[in-house]
């Protein structure tokens, strides 16, 4: 499975910096941003807590079996990188 990787950076109002990739098999920047918001909300970070956010297409790659399974189940997979 080929996936699109969206490099995502979030700065919260309390000063935390979160860096993660949103991986999805289809979609665009708006959909990747929505997936990022859903994932953040599942970790207690709501829109009101976000001071700045950026989600940009980075590249495409072949998905690992774990990523393919997550995308099949929920439409996306998150790869935490920094502060997550």
Automatic annotation (TrEMBL):
Pfam families: DUF2024 (PF09630). This is DUF2024 family protein. It comes from Metapseudomonas lalkuanensis.
């Amino acid at each position: 499975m080929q996936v699109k990787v969206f490099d995502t950076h979030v700065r919260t109002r309390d000063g935390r910096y979160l860096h993660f990739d949103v991986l999805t098999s289809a979609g665009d920047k708006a959909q990747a941003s929505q997936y990022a918001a859903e994932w953040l909300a599942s970790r207690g970070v709501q829109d009101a807590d976000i001071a700045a956010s950026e989600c940009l297409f980075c590249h495409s790659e072949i998905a690992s079996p774990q990523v393919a399974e997550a995308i099949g189940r929920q439409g996306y997979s998150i790869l935490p990188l920094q502060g997550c």
